[in-house]
Fold this sequence. Notes:
Oligomer: single chain
CATH architecture of the largest domain: 2-Layer Sandwich
Domain ACT: 5-77, 90-169
Protein name: Glycine cleavage system regulatory protein
Distance between the termini: 33 Å
CATH superfamily of the largest domain: ACT domain
Largest sheet: 4 strands, antiparallel
Structural class: alpha+beta
CATH class of the largest domain: Alpha Beta
Strand content: 35-45%
Number of domains: 2
Strand order of the largest sheet: 2-3-1-4
InterPro entries: ACT-like_dom_sf, ACT_dom, GcvR, UPF0237/GcvR_regulator
CATH topology of the largest domain: Alpha-Beta Plaits
Number of helices: 4
GO biological process, one term: regulation of DNA-templated transcription
Shape: flat
Pfam family, one: ACT_6
Radius of gyration: 19 Å
Mean pLDDT: 89
Number of strands: 8
Amino acid sequence: MVTLVLTVVGDDRAGLVSSVADIVDAHGGNWENSELAELAGAFAGIVEVSVDVDRADALRQALESLSGTLAVTVHTGSATAPASVPRSVTLDVVGNDRPGIVREVSAALSARGASIERMSTQTTDAAMAGGRLFEAAITVTLIEGVEVDDLVAELERLAAEIQVDVSLSD
């Protein structure tokens, strides 16, 4: 078996997921993990599929048939498992929206040896105060030797600087 990671983007409309799933199934693939969303009228997603090595090329070619509807890019996933299980922590970021929050938080995480495993962000209307509210849920993995306390200290420093609340949980 080989793992393929598909990225899909196109104008949002009914049936897009079904068309990708039909092709994966027709080629003996197994849809394992995915994150799919409608964003500003566009459909975007990432899908992890496993398929027999001898059927992977045919699956890639079949996915090209969606080119008028969806732009599909196929990447071969890594077959190697990590030597040790990395530690994961989750953090939530909330504050008044402004440009640069994601850049600053992601730079601080990277500088402390934290790799973003999953991130979800959104902006909403701040009901009582007016303006926009930025919210993010971020799961990170820490490389060996990185202390959670060091990460927390850096995030607390950053939170005060950019005026957001950051909460961390294991």
